[in-house]
Specification:
This protein is α/β, with parallel strands linked by helices and 209 residues long. It has helices at residues 72-75, 92-99, 109-120, 134-141, 149-157, 167-184, and strands spanning 4-6, 8-10, 16-17, 22-30, 41-50, 55-62, 103-106, 129-133, 190-192. Helix 5 (149-157) crosses helix 6.
């Protein structure tokens, strides 16, 4: 897809110490699964953390998809909830600030990548930032029966995540899962992939009207 340059966690002595990096953990709620079939973003959150799990900053907002809001049975967001919310284009400058200089993280990050490519990159979000999928990282580093975000979180930390199927709740859970992996790995984990880069923040998109 080219939106993110994907890296991986490894115990080999390559790349950068994963604990030394900052991470922008991204989650979205959407009207469907496929942008190619008209699905749109209705909520987005970023939790920026250091490699030791210390919180740097959080951001969360509903998004006006300018389309019917499907998927309410999963995310609980109705059409009235998005009235007056910013469009995806209007949050691009803020997202760029949060992603700049960090590794972009998601649990099954390919899903978020599709919506980055379909809505946010055309609106000015810079491409080429470093990426890390915690789902792939878990499968390569930890043997579990299930790798879903709730089940993996419970297995590694002993706690079930709260706020499931909200963008902020899932981003927080993913950030905590990442910190558990980096802190409790039997050996030092390194990030094998492109280094995070500073991003130029685009001009704000015009408001409605």
């Amino acid at each position: 897809m080219g939106t993110l340059r994907m890296g991986a966690l490894t115990r080999r002595r390559v790349g950068m110490r994963a604990a030394d990096l900052e991470y922008a953990v991204l989650d979205m709620e959407t009207t469907g699964l496929e942008p190619r079939e008209g699905a749109r973003i209705v909520e987005i959150a970023v939790v920026r953390v250091r490699g030791d799990g210390k919180l740097v900053e959080e951001f969360s907002t509903l998004i006006d998809p300018r389309a019917p809001v499907g998927g309410r049975e999963f995310h609980g967001i109705g059409e009235g909830d998005t009235v007056g919310a910013p469009t995806a284009a209007q949050v691009v400058p803020r997202l760029t600030e949060l992603l700049s200089g960090a590794v972009v993280v998601g649990h099954n990050l390919d899903f978020e990548q599709r919506f980055l490519a379909s809505e946010l990159v055309p609106a000015g979000l810079p491409t080429g930032q470093a990426g890390l999928c915690t789902l792939r990282a878990l499968r390569s580093q930890v043997e579990l029966e299930r790798y879903s975000l709730p089940k993996a979180s419970h297995r590694l930390s002993g706690d079930w995540p709260t706020g499931q199927h909200t963008a902020l709740g899932d981003a927080r859970a993913c950030a905590k899962l990442l910190a558990e992996m980096l802190t409790n790995a039997p050996g030092e984990l390194r990030y094998g992939g492109p280094a995070p880069k500073r991003l130029a923040v685009p001009d704000p998109a015009p408001g409605p009207g």
